[in-house]
Amino acid sequence: MIIYHGYVLSTKQDCQFHLKPELKSDANGKPDGFSIVVSNAGDWTNNIIHNPPKKLWVHGYLLHGLLYTSRLFHKIIVVATSSGIRPPLSLFLCNYNEQIHVFWSTPTPETTYGSKIRDTVKKADPNAWIWDTHKQGHPDMVACTYKMVVESGVEAVYIILNLKLTRRVVYGMES
Protein backbone atom coordinates (compact mmCIF):
# COMPACT_ATOMS: atom_id res chain seq x y z
CA MET A 1 0.00 0.00 0.00
CA ILE A 2 1.27 3.46 -0.85
CA ILE A 3 1.49 5.71 2.22
CA TYR A 4 0.91 9.45 2.02
CA HIS A 5 2.09 11.95 4.58
CA GLY A 6 2.16 15.71 4.79
CA TYR A 7 4.42 18.44 6.09
CA VAL A 8 3.57 21.83 7.51
CA LEU A 9 5.39 24.60 5.64
CA SER A 10 6.06 28.30 6.05
CA THR A 11 7.76 31.09 4.12
CA LYS A 12 9.72 32.05 7.26
CA GLN A 13 11.52 29.91 9.79
CA ASP A 14 9.45 30.80 12.85
CA CYS A 15 5.99 31.94 11.79
CA GLN A 16 2.76 31.33 9.87
CA PHE A 17 2.79 27.64 9.12
CA HIS A 18 -0.08 27.14 6.68
CA LEU A 19 0.37 24.69 3.84
CA LYS A 20 0.08 20.98 4.34
CA PRO A 21 1.38 19.39 1.15
CA GLU A 22 1.05 15.71 0.63
CA LEU A 23 4.29 13.77 0.31
CA LYS A 24 3.68 11.00 -2.18
CA SER A 25 5.44 7.64 -2.30
CA ASP A 26 5.85 5.37 -5.29
CA ALA A 27 4.84 1.69 -5.32
CA ASN A 28 8.09 0.81 -3.51
CA GLY A 29 7.50 3.35 -0.72
CA LYS A 30 10.18 5.79 -1.92
CA PRO A 31 9.38 9.54 -1.93
CA ASP A 32 7.91 10.60 -5.26
CA GLY A 33 7.24 14.34 -4.97
CA PHE A 34 4.74 16.70 -3.43
CA SER A 35 1.26 17.92 -4.19
CA ILE A 36 0.29 21.37 -2.93
CA VAL A 37 -3.01 23.16 -3.45
CA VAL A 38 -3.07 26.81 -2.38
CA SER A 39 -6.43 28.55 -2.18
CA ASN A 40 -6.51 32.32 -2.62
CA ALA A 41 -8.38 32.66 0.67
CA GLY A 42 -6.35 35.18 2.63
CA ASP A 43 -3.37 37.52 2.64
CA TRP A 44 -0.79 34.82 3.26
CA THR A 45 -2.02 32.44 0.56
CA ASN A 46 -2.60 35.33 -1.86
CA ASN A 47 1.04 36.29 -1.41
CA ILE A 48 2.18 32.68 -2.00
CA ILE A 49 0.24 32.62 -5.27
CA HIS A 50 1.35 36.01 -6.58
CA ASN A 51 4.90 36.00 -5.16
CA PRO A 52 6.01 32.35 -5.02
CA PRO A 53 8.81 31.92 -2.49
CA LYS A 54 12.21 30.56 -3.49
CA LYS A 55 12.24 28.32 -0.42
CA LEU A 56 9.85 27.06 2.23
CA TRP A 57 10.51 25.96 5.81
CA VAL A 58 9.39 22.55 7.02
CA HIS A 59 7.89 22.52 10.52
CA GLY A 60 7.69 19.46 12.73
CA TYR A 61 7.32 15.85 11.68
CA LEU A 62 5.52 14.01 8.93
CA LEU A 63 1.77 14.18 9.43
CA HIS A 64 -0.92 11.70 8.53
CA GLY A 65 -3.66 13.27 6.47
CA LEU A 66 -7.07 14.16 7.79
CA LEU A 67 -8.64 11.04 6.34
CA TYR A 68 -6.13 8.57 7.79
CA THR A 69 -8.89 7.06 9.93
CA SER A 70 -11.02 6.45 6.86
CA ARG A 71 -9.27 3.10 6.52
CA LEU A 72 -11.38 1.90 9.44
CA PHE A 73 -14.44 1.94 7.19
CA HIS A 74 -15.41 0.08 4.02
CA LYS A 75 -17.53 2.88 2.52
CA ILE A 76 -17.12 6.59 3.11
CA ILE A 77 -18.31 9.91 1.73
CA VAL A 78 -16.01 12.92 1.47
CA VAL A 79 -17.86 16.25 1.43
CA ALA A 80 -15.72 19.29 0.59
CA THR A 81 -15.96 22.81 -0.70
CA SER A 82 -13.29 24.61 -2.72
CA SER A 83 -9.73 23.87 -1.53
CA GLY A 84 -11.15 21.58 1.14
CA ILE A 85 -10.62 18.93 -1.53
CA ARG A 86 -6.87 19.09 -0.84
CA PRO A 87 -6.74 17.03 2.39
CA PRO A 88 -8.44 13.96 0.87
CA LEU A 89 -6.34 14.00 -2.33
CA SER A 90 -3.74 11.73 -0.74
CA LEU A 91 -6.50 9.26 0.10
CA PHE A 92 -7.83 9.44 -3.46
CA LEU A 93 -4.35 8.72 -4.83
CA CYS A 94 -3.82 5.82 -2.45
CA ASN A 95 -5.84 3.31 -4.52
CA TYR A 96 -6.88 1.18 -1.60
CA ASN A 97 -9.97 -0.94 -2.22
CA GLU A 98 -12.55 0.77 -0.04
CA GLN A 99 -15.45 2.59 -1.66
CA ILE A 100 -15.16 6.37 -1.66
CA HIS A 101 -17.99 8.69 -2.65
CA VAL A 102 -17.20 12.36 -3.22
CA PHE A 103 -19.31 15.52 -3.13
CA TRP A 104 -17.19 18.56 -4.00
CA SER A 105 -18.75 22.00 -4.38
CA THR A 106 -16.53 24.74 -5.78
CA PRO A 107 -16.56 27.56 -8.32
CA THR A 108 -15.21 26.56 -11.76
CA PRO A 109 -13.40 23.40 -10.57
CA GLU A 110 -11.38 22.70 -13.68
CA THR A 111 -10.35 26.32 -14.24
CA THR A 112 -9.49 26.86 -10.58
CA TYR A 113 -7.85 23.52 -9.73
CA GLY A 114 -6.98 21.98 -13.08
CA SER A 115 -7.78 18.71 -14.77
CA LYS A 116 -5.33 16.70 -12.61
CA ILE A 117 -7.28 17.45 -9.44
CA ARG A 118 -10.59 16.71 -11.18
CA ASP A 119 -9.18 13.47 -12.62
CA THR A 120 -7.91 12.41 -9.18
CA VAL A 121 -11.38 12.96 -7.71
CA LYS A 122 -13.01 11.05 -10.59
CA LYS A 123 -10.51 8.19 -10.26
CA ALA A 124 -11.48 7.78 -6.59
CA ASP A 125 -15.19 8.07 -7.42
CA PRO A 126 -16.19 7.91 -11.10
CA ASN A 127 -19.65 9.14 -10.06
CA ALA A 128 -18.38 12.00 -7.89
CA TRP A 129 -20.62 15.04 -7.63
CA ILE A 130 -18.41 17.91 -8.70
CA TRP A 131 -20.75 20.87 -8.27
CA ASP A 132 -19.72 24.03 -10.14
CA THR A 133 -21.19 26.85 -8.05
CA HIS A 134 -20.67 29.37 -10.87
CA LYS A 135 -22.89 27.34 -13.20
CA GLN A 136 -25.23 25.63 -10.73
CA GLY A 137 -25.41 28.04 -7.79
CA HIS A 138 -24.78 26.92 -4.24
CA PRO A 139 -26.10 23.44 -3.43
CA ASP A 140 -28.11 22.42 -0.40
CA MET A 141 -25.15 20.68 1.23
CA VAL A 142 -27.33 18.95 3.83
CA ALA A 143 -29.81 17.54 1.29
CA CYS A 144 -27.10 16.46 -1.16
CA THR A 145 -25.01 14.81 1.56
CA TYR A 146 -28.05 13.05 2.99
CA LYS A 147 -29.01 11.78 -0.48
CA MET A 148 -25.51 10.32 -0.92
CA VAL A 149 -25.63 8.70 2.53
CA VAL A 150 -28.99 7.04 1.86
CA GLU A 151 -28.11 5.89 -1.67
CA SER A 152 -24.64 4.55 -0.89
CA GLY A 153 -25.05 3.04 2.59
CA VAL A 154 -21.76 4.47 3.83
CA GLU A 155 -20.33 3.93 7.30
CA ALA A 156 -18.76 7.39 7.70
CA VAL A 157 -18.97 10.90 6.29
CA TYR A 158 -15.86 13.09 6.28
CA ILE A 159 -16.77 16.78 6.11
CA ILE A 160 -14.22 19.40 5.08
CA LEU A 161 -16.15 22.67 5.07
CA ASN A 162 -16.07 25.95 6.95
CA LEU A 163 -17.20 25.69 10.57
CA LYS A 164 -20.71 27.10 10.05
CA LEU A 165 -21.47 24.79 7.12
CA THR A 166 -19.87 21.81 8.87
CA ARG A 167 -22.17 22.31 11.85
CA ARG A 168 -25.19 22.58 9.54
CA VAL A 169 -24.32 19.37 7.68
CA VAL A 170 -23.49 17.45 10.87
CA TYR A 171 -26.77 18.58 12.45
CA GLY A 172 -28.62 17.53 9.28
CA MET A 173 -27.02 14.08 9.30
CA GLU A 174 -27.77 13.59 13.01
CA SER A 175 -31.41 14.69 12.70
From TrEMBL:
Xref: InterPro entries: Adenylate-forming_domain (IPR052979)
Entry protein name: Uncharacterized protein
Naturally occurring in which organism (per UniProt): Collybiopsis luxurians FD-317 M1
